[in-house]
Amino acid sequence: MTKLIGPKKINTAVFISGTGTNFKNLIKFSFSKNSPIIIKYVISNNSKAIGLNYAKKYKIKKKIFKFRSEKESKILNFLKINHIEFVCLAGFMKILSQNFISKFKGKIINIHPSLLPKYKGLNTHQRVIKNKEKFSGCTVHFVNSKLDSGKIILQKKVKIFKKDTADTLAKRILEQEHIIYPKAILKILANP
Predict the structure, then answer these.
(1) Which residues are catalytic?
(2) What's the CA gap between 51 and 32, in Å, rounded?
(3) Which residue from 13, 67, 112, 151 lies 20 to 30 Å from 103 (Cα-Cα)?
(4) Does domain 10-114+138-157+177-189 sit in CATH 3.40.50.170?
C-alpha cells in the first residue's frame, strides 16, 4: 500500500521582538495538516523577548541578531544557509532595509494592529481611541520598503466601544490577528 505524502511545507522563519502571541499562534497553525508552512526558526532582535519561550516549548530553533544594517548580510546568509523561503513578521519592532526586503520579495509578510492604510506605526490603539474612530482592526500585508505600506492580503474590522481603553481594544484586536494571520498565509501560499 502506497503511503500518501502531503504537499511539501515551506521553510519559514518568524521574526519577533516581544510577547510572541502571534508566533505561538503560527506554531500551532504550522502543525495543522492544511498548513503550507513549517517554522524552522524564530529570529529576534531581543534576547529577552518573552515569545522566545515558545521556541523552547515547541522545539523550534532560535537565533538572536542585533539588526544593525551592516549585519543584515549576515542575517540574509543565515536564512539562505538554512533554506528559509518565507518570513512572517509578528510583533517585530525593527525596520528591515530595502535590500533585505528585496531578497524576499513577495515572501515576507507582517501583521499590523490597525486597518491600514490608516494608523501606520506605533501606538495604534491609543490613536484610534483619541480620534474617536468607530472601528479599528488588523491587517496582514506584504512588506515593502515603506513602513506598513505593502499590498494588503487580509483585514478584519473590529468595532470600538465607548468604554474601550487601548488595552481592551488591543485584546479584542489580538484575537482577530490570531484568526486572520493563518488565513492570509493560506490565501497566498496554499495551492491555488
Answers:
(1) 112
(2) 20
(3) 112
(4) yes
